[in-house]
């Protein structure tokens, strides 16, 4: 057995560090004495050495060695016979045991994608003749074409994957995401469904995700629910994660959290979708749960975007926007297609006053997820923050036309209309339509309450809020109800509502301020006595104390920041 065959055996056995050391030494020997190894042996050594570099994540070095290997292969193709080796046993025929040139090019493309050089990856794979492309090459090409916006080429490659492997479900999702009709995709799998038992669920699965990618959340939810209940797919983690995401898109945060929790119980190591789950928990003020979730995800893997996004949500809702910005950027670095990371970074930039930079991130999120309303909401908030009401109105109208007239799009359009005194009546009509469709939709209730507050119709607002709170409990709704009750002098019940709001979200500053104001008004005599005492003691001390608290808080923030580095 020759030394090259020993290298090949070690590579097959996964002894990458050993292969790297030995092949490196042998290549140096070959460089000093070109006659030592035959061209085919040198080609093998270069490929095995490059593979070991790839395994060590030294992608640029691996590309260099793969390129040298391909050049060596060209030299091989020009000779009909292999030169005998002078330093080893009898050489093998050229065609025997040689690493595939196609596989080498695929590995090079993998290196380029890891280096974020997608154009180079496409170029190397495009150089492989169509008939020689394996399913994994077509799959990689399809994903790269999709990312580059070459939709037609992407569709062709995904279809080629399905032609070779009709049960390639991710290829099916890729086609559906590129607006290929569900019926056309299903027709490509019909033969396999009929020939293999227990695959009758696949056609309904395709139908469900066709609804997902057309933005029809209601029918997608109904189809996946029936798929889960009526088949052997009960308690499937992927389906539960899809349901959770669909409920989130539909604005049903309660059911979304419930499904995420179910999925998490079934698979404690689940990462996919946990960024959305963390965001929902943070919005509800459950920051301790968010922090625990982030720690758990980091223990599973810090090479995914989700843990960074969850920690970023904790920072964002703790009003530590610089920290949230850093964590969002880190998540995007790990996964440039993470919509939740883009939204986190965009929101942090917006709250830091860097609106134009935020707009770029929200637009990229829209490009990646054109059916997600929260991407448009973020962009419209940026327009409103920069007083670009016209741009906000154009965008809201486009969303309304594109995603259809549902409670969410109606509310979004009404939100923009509320910013212009001329369109107040239109906002009222839109909100009434939204609440007719979904009386429990919190964002619509909040905006309608805002409108009634402007008109000083407090009794109507109280009735609206009581009705909305009949079947759900939400911090913001309880707090707004407290504000309305104060306006009609119902102080005791207002205090109760503020207390409920704080029990749901202890960090809600507005509820805390409302409660403190009520407590002061409840005991005016005590307040007067306290003022007299303050006057006797001197008027400068309280301000000094407040300054000390503020300074201490700043130092505490800095300590937290450095502690997380």
Automatic annotation (TrEMBL):
The gene is Anapc7. Pathway: Protein modification; protein ubiquitination. One of its GO terms (biological process) is positive regulation of mitotic metaphase/anaphase transition. Residues 528-549 have a biased composition (Acidic residues). V-shaped homodimer. The mammalian APC/C is composed at least of 14 distinct subunits ANAPC1, ANAPC2, CDC27/APC3, ANAPC4, ANAPC5, CDC16/APC6, ANAPC7, CDC23/APC8, ANAPC10, ANAPC11, CDC26/APC12, ANAPC13, ANAPC15 and ANAPC16 that assemble into a complex of at least 19 chains with a combined molecular mass of around 1.2 MDa; APC/C interacts with FZR1 and FBXO5. It comes from Anthoscopus minutus. Residues 513-565 are annotated as: Disordered. It comes from the Eukaryota. Belongs to the APC7 family. GO terms for cellular component: anaphase-promoting complex; spindle. TPR repeats lie at residues 339-372, 475-508. Component of the anaphase promoting complex/cyclosome (APC/C), a cell cycle-regulated E3 ubiquitin ligase that controls progression through mitosis and the G1 phase of the cell cycle. The APC/C complex acts by mediating ubiquitination and subsequent degradation of target proteins: it mainly mediates the formation of 'Lys-11'-linked polyubiquitin chains and, to a lower extent, the formation of 'Lys-48'- and 'Lys-63'-linked polyubiquitin chains. The APC/C complex catalyzes assembly of branched 'Lys-11'-/'Lys-48'-linked branched ubiquitin chains on target proteins. Keywords: Acetylation, Cell cycle, Cell division, Cytoplasm, Cytoskeleton, Mitosis, Nucleus, Repeat, TPR repeat, Ubl conjugation pathway. It is found in: Cytoplasm, Cytoskeleton, Spindle; Nucleus. InterPro entries: TPR-like_helical_dom_sf, TPR_rpt. PROSITE patterns: TPR. This is Anaphase-promoting complex subunit 7. Residues 513-523 have a biased composition (Basic and acidic residues). Its main location: cytoplasm.
């Amino acid at each position: 057995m020759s030394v090259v065959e020993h290298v090949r055996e070690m590579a097959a056995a996964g002894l990458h560090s050993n292969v790297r050391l030995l092949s490196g030494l042998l290549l140096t020997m070959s460089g000093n004495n070109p006659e030592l190894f035959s061209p085919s042996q040198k080609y093998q050594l270069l490929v095995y050495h490059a593979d070991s570099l790839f395994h060590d994540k030294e992608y640029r070095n691996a590309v260099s060695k793969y390129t040298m290997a391909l050049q060596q292969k060209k030299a091989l193709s020009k000779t009909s016979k292999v030169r005998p080796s002078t330093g080893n046993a009898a050489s093998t025929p050229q065609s025997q045991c040689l690493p595939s040139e196609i596989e080498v090019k695929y590995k090079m493309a993998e290196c380029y994608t890891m280096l974020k050089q997608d154009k180079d990856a496409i170029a190397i794979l495009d150089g492989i003749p169509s008939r020689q492309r394996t399913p994994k090459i077509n799959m990689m090409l399809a994903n790269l074409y999709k990312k580059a916006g070459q939709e037609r080429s992407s569709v062709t490659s995904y279809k080629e994957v399905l032609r070779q492997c009709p049960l390639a479900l991710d290829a099916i999702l890729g086609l559906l995401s590129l607006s290929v009709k569900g019926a056309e995709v299903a027709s490509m799998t019909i033969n396999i469904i009929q020939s293999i038992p227990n695959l009758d669920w696949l056609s309904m699965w395709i139908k469900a995700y066709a609804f997902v990618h057309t933005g029809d959340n209601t029918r997608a939810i109904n189809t996946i629910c029936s798929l889960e209940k009526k088949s052997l797919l009960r308690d499937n983690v992927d389906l539960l994660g899809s349901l959770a995401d669909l409920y989130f898109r539909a604005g049903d945060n309660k059911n979304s959290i419930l499904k995420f929790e179910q999925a998490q119980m079934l698979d404690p190591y689940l990462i996919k979708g946990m960024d959305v789950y963390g965001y929902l928990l943070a919005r509800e003020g459950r920051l301790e749960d968010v922090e625990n979730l982030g720690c758990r995800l980091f223990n599973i893997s810090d090479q995914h975007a989700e843990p960074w996004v969850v920690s970023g949500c904790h920072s964002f809702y703790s009003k530590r926007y610089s920290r949230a910005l850093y964590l969002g950027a880190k998540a995007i670095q790990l996964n440039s297609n993470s919509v939740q990371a883009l939204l986190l970074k965009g929101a942090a930039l917006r709250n830091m006053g860097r609106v134009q930079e935020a707009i770029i991130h929200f637009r990229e999120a829209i490009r990646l997820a054109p059916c997600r309303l929260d991407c448009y909401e973020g962009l419209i908030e940026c327009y409103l923050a920069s007083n670009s009401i016209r741009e906000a109105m154009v965008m809201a109208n486009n969303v309304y036309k594109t995603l259809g007239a549902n409670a969410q799009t109606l509310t979004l359009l009404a939100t923009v209309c509320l910013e212009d005194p001329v369109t107040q009546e239109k906002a009222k009509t839109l909100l009434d339509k939204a609440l007719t469709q979904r009386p429990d939709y919190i964002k619509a209730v909040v905006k309608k309450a805002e409108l009634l507050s402007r008109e000083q119709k407090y009794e109507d607002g109280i009735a609206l809020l009581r009705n909305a709170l009949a079947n759900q409990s939400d911090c913001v709704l309880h707090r707004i109800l407290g504000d309305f009750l104060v306006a009609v002098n119902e102080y005791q019940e207002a205090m109760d509502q503020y207390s409920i709001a704080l029990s749901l979200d202890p960090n809600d500053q507005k509820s805390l301020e409302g409660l403190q104001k009520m407590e002061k008004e409840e005991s005016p005599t005590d307040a007067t006595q306290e003022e007299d005492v303050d006057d006797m003691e001197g008027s400068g001390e309280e301000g000094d104390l407040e300054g000390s608290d503020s300074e201490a808080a700043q130092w505490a923030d800095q300590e937290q920041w450095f502690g997380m580095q």
